[in-house]
User: Fold this.
Amino acid sequence: MAPYLIAGTVFVSAVASSYSEPAHAKISGRALMEQCVSSLTVAQTVCNSYIEGLIEGHTLSTGGTMGKTKFFCMPPNASTSKARKIIVKYLKKNAAELERNAGELVYQALADAWPCK
Assistant:
């Protein structure tokens, strides 16, 4: 877990500083896709960490007693690797949207692939 946290922190810091925006700057779909399709292990780890964080945040905020509406329903046997493939495919197919917030694009990709029934 610690390597994912460190890699994610490095990614967010690098992306935020490279755009001369505040540290709380949102990550674009383009920045996420660059990490996800990279051949570098550390970049893929950053991509997976970002995706896992969004999925876990979604699960925690929509489950239990909170009762919020779910945007997507991930199958129990689905992996982060499978989610990454779905997301990269979606980002490539929707290249005109890559300047949007990466989190929004990830949610949309997963909602399209794994709608709640």
Q: What stands out?
A: The mean pLDDT is 81.
